[in-house]
């Protein structure tokens, strides 16, 4: 498998599973804490950060593909 294809597919997969992964990360990291009013903002932060990581990986894959195509 080409390196650029691996980055591209990994980025797409991370974007697609960012919400369930964020729920899991929030529950693991804040297991013994009371997050009464802060749960939704923390969850949104985790979701957005995972989506950004997926977007960066996807763009790295696209740039590598375009670079290797020339």
TrEMBL record:
<keyword id="KW-0472">Membrane</keyword>
<feature type="transmembrane region" description="Helical">
    <location>
        <begin position="46"/>
        <end position="66"/>
    </location>
</feature>
<feature type="transmembrane region" description="Helical">
    <location>
        <begin position="7"/>
        <end position="26"/>
    </location>
</feature>
<protein>
    <submittedName>
        <fullName>Glycosyl transferase</fullName>
    </submittedName>
</protein>
<dbReference type="GO" id="GO:0016740">
    <property type="term" value="F:transferase activity"/>
</dbReference>
<keyword id="KW-0812">Transmembrane</keyword>
<keyword id="KW-1133">Transmembrane helix</keyword>
<keyword id="KW-0808">Transferase</keyword>
């Amino acid at each position: 498998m080409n390196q650029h294809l691996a980055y591209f597919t990994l980025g797409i997969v991370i974007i697609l599973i960012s919400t369930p992964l964020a729920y899991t990360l929030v529950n693991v990291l804040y297991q013994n804490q009371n997050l009464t009013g802060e749960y939704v903002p923390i969850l949104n932060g985790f979701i957005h950060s995972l989506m950004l990581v997926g977007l960066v990986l996807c763009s790295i894959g696209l740039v590598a593909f375009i670079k290797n195509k020339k």
